[in-house]
Structures are given as C-alpha cells and as structure tokens.
Design a protein that fits this description.
The structure holds 2 protein chains of 2 kinds. By secondary structure, chain A is mainly α. Helix content of chain A is about 80%, strand content about 0%. Chain A starts with 5 loop residues before the first helix and ends with a helix. The longest helix of chain B is centred in the first third of the chain and has 33 residues, at about 20-50. Chain B is mostly helical. In chain B, α1 packs antiparallel against α7 and α8 packs antiparallel against α9 (about 205-230). Chain B has 9 helices and no strands. Classes of the chains: A mainly alpha, B mainly alpha. At the A-B interface, α4, α8 and α9 of A face α2, α3, α7, α8 and α9 of B.
C-alpha cells in the first residue's frame, strides 16, 4: 500500500466542505419540511374522514416500500416533466435542487409514522379536556395534543434526522455534489480513493456518533415521568 | 402533457438480443439473491453480536457495542465503497490483489450489506434477550445448563420469537437497501431501472413497473415472515400488533 497522503485531504478540504454544507442544507430543509408534511399526514391518518385516511396510508406505504435511490432518480427525471406540463415551459431544475424536494417528500412518510405514534401516545383525556375547554379541533391539536406528541417523539424525530443526514449520500445516483459526492469527484480526478473515502467515513462517523449520543442524553432528560 | 406513453417497449429487443422485460427479471433475480444472502450474513453475525452484548463479559459487550456504533454511523454507500476501494489497499498486498481481481463483486457487496445490517439485527436481538425476565436465565443455570446452553435452549428461542416483527421490517429494509449495491457494479433491479431509462427514456412506465416490483418483493417477504410469526407465537404472550390475539 502507498502511504496515506494527508496533503490530498488538505488540498481539497474546501471542496469537501462545500459538499458537507450542501448535505447539511438538504438535511435541515428536508427535516423541517418533512416534519411539517409528516404531521399533516399523521393528522389525516388519524382523522375520521375515510378518504383522508386512505390518502395518508397510501402515501406512507408507497414511500416506505421503495428504495430511496429509486425515488431520487425518479423525481429528478419526472419533476421537470411535471413542471413543464403545469407551466408549459421547459423547466430544468438540476440535480442539486431536485434533492431538496425529493428528501422532503420522502422523509415526510417516515416522520408521519413517528408523529402518528406520538399523537397516539397522548392520553385521550387530553383531547376530551381540550374540547371541554371549548377548543375547536384545530385548537385542541395545536395547543394540547401536538406539543405533547412532539415532546414525546423528539428523540425519535432526531434519530430519524441522523438517518436522513446519512441518506443524503445517495444523491450520488444523480451526480449531485454532496459530501460523499465531492469526495468521489476528487477521487475520479486524483485517484486517491483510500484518503478520500476514509475521510468521508471518519467525518460521517464523528458527526453521527456525537449526535446520537446527544440524542440519548436528551432522551433521558426530557422523559416525562408518569 | 406531451409525454409519449409506450407500454410496448418492454417487449422490444435490446442491444444484447434480450427483451427489456428480461433485464427487469434478471435485475429482480439479482436483487433477491443479494438481499437473501446479505440477510443470512446479517442474521448470523447480528445474532452473535446481540448475544455478546448481553453476556456478563465486559470485553464482549464492548466489542459488540463498538461494532454497532461503527456500522450504524456511516452511510451504507460509504461502507460499500470502503469495502471495494479502501480495504483492498489496506490489507496485505497479495490479499488485496485477490480481492480486486478474483473475488466476485457480488461477494463483497453481500458482505458489505450484511455487515451493515448486522448492526441493526444486533440491536433487535439484544432487545429481545433483555426483554426476558432474568428468572429465565437463573432457571436455566439451576437446571445445570452452562451459560451457553441457557442461550441455546432457553433465552434465544424466546428472544427470536419476541423480536420477529422487528426482524421482519429489517428483512424488508434489506431489499430496499440492496438497491445501493448498484453503485459497486451489481446488476440488480435498480441498476436495470437506471439502464433502461438511459436507453429508452420511458421514465414513467419503467418507474411504475419497478416500483410495483419492489412493492411485490416487500409484500412477499412480509407475508412469509408473518406466517412464520403466527406459527412461532409464544402462547400466552401478547406479541405483534394488529389486535390479533
């Protein structure tokens, strides 16, 4: 084996950081958007209106049974077609931008399952109490149920976000330059796979390991004693 | 919308004399082979690690915990690239050369996916063993079993049956995760999907077909394991949701 050459990493550090920044941006957008859509889906799933239930169940089941790489590629190709059909103009949106949309929509399915069990973990009496106070459905959800559901599920939501952060690496399928994509592109040019892939693995490990330990600590601190 | 629908292209001939639906079938075959083989690796190793993490031996627990931390905190695609492009450079030269030249790709991919999934299985197995009352182990020891025999005859048979629902979802995940092995040259279903799009541009038709194929795989796996679950249910225990008890 040739010696591990740190200078390759140092020289390309800027490009790698650019990639890491993109990874973090997509993670944050998809987390916020995914939790928002996921919460709406969970409310639909638990509502008493049958078509809404079917829609939410179908959405969740479809996205949970296909591989993420396939969704990434399919959306990248289909999204411009759909936009063109709506606006009538060709709309090339690019790999980097389509990923924001794909991950938001895809992760919403996973977040919605988490929020659903969060909502179900809130005792029924809380809802009855909300109505008894004269709250409407919307107020009961917004002011009573969802804050508790969110608190109960916070560790699980964050754990899912760590998985999301790792999954961004699959934009490799459409050639976007995320953290892993950046390292891969440098490897294609400089032919230093050992340095580049090892760096990615180590950095991913440090970030995800630290975050998951923090989530564990959070979990023990915010647990509601019943 | 001026998309040109054409469902018949599946029956058109490709460059290599096969039809497009042959490509999909062969992809489906490879997906199944890679997934099942990886699942076997993951179950074996994951069970061993899960057991290690419940023993009183500090070293075994430490190794098991470290393994799970390591393999859960690095993305699958990065792990696969490590096995393909980094590990052969780090091992002794002869072994590295053998890995690069003689070892079939699919073996490395199966090992990579299997080791990744083993970390998840280890978590489930550990949770299953820990969910048993400690009296089970004590009873085993009181009967004169060795520590290993309490696992073999008392604790594992119970633990597996308790965590089977969780193992079912891992088994379904592995079919989805196997799509990532396209990146290291396995000609599985996603690879064929990508290739057919490049050749024909019939994105919508092929997306629908491949999505349904993954659906079918997940469904078959789910039914299969659900029937095992029914047959192995521990009498008197409330396991599995769906209110079916």
């Amino acid at each position: 084996m040739t010696d591990f050459d740190f200078s390759v990493i140092v020289e390309n550090w800027g490009f790698l950081l650019e990639g890491l920044r993109y990874t973090i941006q997509v993670t944050i957008v998809a987390m916020l958007g995914g939790i928002l859509i996921g919460t709406l889906l969970a409310l639909m799933r638990l509502s008493s209106i049958a078509p809404l239930q079917w829609f939410a169940a179908g959405y969740v089941n479809v996205f949970r049974s296909v591989p993420l790489v396939q969704v990434i590629l399919a959306f990248y190709l289909i999204l411009p077609l759909a936009l063109q059909a709506i606006t009538g103009k060709p709309m090339p949106i690019g790999a980097a931008n389509s990923a924001y949309f794909t991950f938001t929509v895809f992760e919403a399915a996973y977040y919605s399952e988490i929020m659903r069990s969060g909502i179900q973990s809130v005792p029924r009496g809380q809802i009855a109490a909300g109505y008894a106070m004269g709250f409407t459905y919307g107020q009961t959800m917004r002011l009573v149920v969802l804050p508790q559901a969110f608190r109960n599920m916070l560790p699980v939501l964050l754990t899912q976000t760590i998985i999301l952060f790792q999954d961004i690496s699959l934009v490799y399928a459409i050639g976007a330059t995320d953290f892993f994509g950046a390292a891969d592109k440098i490897t294609q040019r400089d032919l230093r796979p050992v340095e580049m892939y090892t760096t990615v693995a180590v950095v991913y490990f440090i970030i995800c390991f630290t975050l998951s330990r923090l989530v564990k600590r959070l979990q023990s601190r915010i647990a509601i004693i019943r | 919308m001026d998309y040109h629908w054409n469902w018949m292209f599946f029956f058109q001939e490709t460059d290599d004399g096969l039809k497009y639906y042959d490509w999909i079938l062969s992809g489906l075959g490879w997906t199944t082979v890679v997934s099942l083989a990886s699942l076997a690796v993951a179950l074996l190793l994951g069970s061993a690690l899960g057991v290690m993490r419940t023993t009183p031996n500090r070293w075994l627990v430490g190794i098991g915990d470290a393994y799970v931390d390591l393999f859960r905190n690095v993305p699958l695609i990065v792990q696969l690239f490590m096995w393909f492009f980094v590990v052969p450079e780090l091992v002794p030269e002869k072994l590295g050369l053998w890995m690069k030249q003689d070892l079939p790709y699919v073996v490395i991919a199966v090992v990579g996916l299997g080791l990744y999934t083993a970390a998840r299985i280890a978590e489930q197995v550990k949770a299953g063993i820990n969910s048993l009352s400690r009296g089970q182990r004590a009873a085993g020891l009181a009967l004169g079993f060795t520590e290993w025999q309490t696992y073999r005859h008392v604790r594992l048979p119970m633990a597996y049956r308790i965590v089977l629902p969780a193992l079912t979802s891992e088994a379904m995940n592995i079919f989805k995760n196997s799509a990532v092995t396209y990146a290291v040259g396995i000609l599985e279903l996603y690879f064929q999907y990508k290739q057919i799009i490049e050749k024909t541009s019939q994105v919508l038709e092929i997306t629908i077909v491949v999505t349904l194929a993954y659906f079918a795989l997940a469904f078959v796996m789910n039914r299969l394991l659900a029937s095992i679950e029914r047959r192995t249910r521990v009498p008197g225990l409330i396991v599995g949701g769906k209110g079916s008890n």
